[in-house]
Amino acid sequence: MSTAVGNEAGVLSIGSGAGPDHIVITATYVNRHQRSATIWDIEHRRANIDIMLSSPSFAALSKAGELVEQALYKTGGVVSVARTWDMDKTVYNLAIDSKRAALYGLNSGAITSQLQQQLRGSMVATLPAVNSIDYGVRLWLPQTQRDRIAQLSTTLITTASGDKIPLAAVAQISSGLEPSIINREGLNYTLNVYGSREKAAISHIMDNFDQVFDADTLPTSVTMEQVGDIKQFKNSAKRMASAIGFAVILIFFTLITFFDSIKIPVMIIFSIPLTIIGVAWTLLVMDYHVAMPAMMGFILLSGIIVNNAILLIHFAQEQIAAGLSPKNAMLESIRIRTRPVLMTAFAVAAGMLPVAMGSAIGLERLAPLGAVAIGGLLIGTLLTLIF
After folding, report:
1. For 88-228, where are the alpha helices, taking DSSP H only?
2. Is residue 77 assigned to a domain?
3. Which pLDDT tens digit goes with each residue over 339-383?
4. By three-state DSSP, how is residue 379 classified?
């Protein structure tokens, strides 16, 4: 559901009104505890895949749209495909010969006015109705005389002198196909091809699409761009990867300053990959995708795991300074520090449990964050104590 002034990508129109080409949809919201579907189930019902084609030519766009549709049908994980428009509207083009029309005392305005009266009809009378709105009586040509070019060409036009001549004497009629709606972006016509998925991750689907579809088969005037969820995901993932990299580098240089060593910070930083095992299995078991909340949870997880590793290594250093060997110092550190490390891990996991279950209002979409924090922290802490 969108409310905006103007337009947004993937939305044909926003606003209100009535007409033969509009429908009205009423959405009734219910308490999320009273519905059978979660937001992750509802997400699968909309078209997550959006491929936008642009070109100055309708014909080239229509051909490109067919190629993209066929490729999406061959892509695993896509259950249905749709497009914003088809070349399904028949139009008649009237080319008036102004010189021949002038011989009969006619011009383009007079010819089109007479055609409009015959094809669209004109109000000739009003039928009164009791206690109701009066009914208009419209007079026009029968359907059988206005749906073919040959019949339209024989339509009689009244000249300035009052004579009747066929339309073909002053004009030529041709037919063609065009879309019923026109979308533009960057001064070019656009066509969006949508795909709906079920369980497969959208990133995997688009990777499969890139393997199936050969971009060289597109007409030369057509450009293709992946928009919608995948574009937002790629942009967000890029920013999140930069944030994670910056955080790791900041932690590394901070530890170098604290321990006055490079070897120990490297050992501490390498405790972070140990959490990936727990993260992967937790997301798999709870059927969550690697969404932005999951990446945010990984940042939170990295800080806690690093803190636990610092507790173990710092205590081991103190034991080495007291005269113990490195192996015995580490074993002593694990024996003494295991309790506070586990207390930290279980306390954070317990606090994240409501988030992972999505039981609180507004936390359903943050469920992957809690799942990543719990799974990664428990497994990562265990592996940190072992290795």
Report:
1. 98-103, 108-119, 149-153, 202-212
2. no
3. 888 888 888 888 888 888 876 666 677 888 888 888 888 888 888
4. helix
